[in-house]
Specification:
heterodimer; A: mainly beta; four-stranded antiparallel beta sheet; 9% helix; B: alpha/beta; D-Amino Acid Oxidase, Chain A, domain 2; 2 domains; eight-stranded mixed beta sheet; six-stranded mixed beta sheet; 12 helices; 29% helix; nucleotide-binding (chain B); Sarcosine oxidase subunit beta (chain B)
Chain lengths: 97, 416
Amino acid sequence: MLLIPCPYCGPRSELEFKHAGEAHITREPQVADDQAWGEFLYTRTNPKGIIAERWRHTSGCGRFFNCLRDTVSDNILATYKSGEPRPSLETSGEPSR
Amino acid sequence: MRFSLLSLIRQSFAHNTGWPEQWRSPEPKPSYDAIIIGGGGHGLATAYYMAAEHGMRNIAVVEKGWIGGGNTGRNTTIIRSNYLWEESEALYGHAMTLWQDLSQVLNYNVMYSPRGVMMLAHNIHDVQVFKRHVHANRLAGTDNEWLTPEQAKAFCPILNISKDIRYPVIGASLQRRGGTARHDAVAWGYARAASALGVDILQNCEVTAITRDASGAVAGIETTRGTIATKRIGVVAAGNTSHVMSMAGVRLPLESYPLQALVSEPVKPVMPCVVMSNTIHAYMSQSDKGELVIGAGTDAYISYSQTGGLHIATHTLDAICEMFPNVRRLRMLRNWGGIVDVTPDRSPIIGKTPVPGLFLNCGWGTGGFKATPGSGHVFAHQVATGEPHPINAPFSLDRFRTGRLIDEAAAAAVAH
């Protein structure tokens, strides 16, 4: 089970959260063709490595936030509030285990 | 050497010292006519049918670890074809047909056992959904029938049908042709049969790059065992498909989740069938060794860790103990996870990709084992001829652009 540091409430058990998919997925509002719409709805990075993902602290503050996690080791590298840019990880070059 | 009563008798007189290796372990050739990436059941079946039915002998299966060591060796071996839509019934029904005489065709006992798969309904929604499946299946000629709780208990005597439990059983659907098979034997049987036809099986050979020529078409692969040239690649890499396809610059509608299973200590036969419950996240059957094989749900988040959180397995055991009270004191021997590649509509993707010469068979999610022979058979046609078999044509990658999805979320039967 993950221990997830909510940026509002601090570290809490995974049971308090709902996973909400890949973060930073945006759509160009001027483009409305099938290809772009299909990619927006369905295409995902699904990286073997570091993923930026959304969580919602459903049993706590109820707020969405973003998280950087290594999908090989499941180590959480950073969490940050929605709307903030994805942090760079040059200081935490922790290897996967 | 063919397996037969005669070879068995001969080997027993020779103290079983004369059995040959089941498949060759050759060095990679500099080039092949086609390469299958992924040595699980689906990849090995694909290679076998390409050799057996399409005459392609200069082909190879590359596997980063050992064959059958991924989801083929990690699933709960359930076989059924009670899916909702006609496209799915054709695909899973095709596999069901091939299962019937697979041991004879491969000359390898895959221990296919049509012992019946029963899916439990615990609420009105389940009843409506399962009855819809029963009617759709029967119209399509697929066997599936509706049972009362008493009939369900008669079919599986250890089932608890009390009305005073948290999620009482109020009905069940039963597919009698469903059942189980020995997962390792499926991989080994296909590997042995493919190798005998000249297919090279390259284990411990991880793909590190997919190279393309000036026109953008596939030119070969880089691996941990050297460079191999080829014009055709079939990617059958299950949970690692997104990772492999990113080497060719292709993004996919896939997400990879850990799916867990566990087995108990072996006991005498107590369970004559497979029982599944989607609503309370549990399913169980008994292996021929006597272990109760239990499947859990997926974790909530994308991961390649092949483990998963213990709370997921605990949740499933809560449900198992309520449905089957007499197994409560059994100890669990092992638990593990496999990485399953889930599509938005819970149906697989089998077909072309935007890259010429690169073909895809993925997205089997939580239920690929049952389809192994059918998946390999139609994908062999796809890779060998370049065009889809009529059965896999609807399962194209393009359906996520056109919107012609094949929604099998209810039939997938694993909570996710």
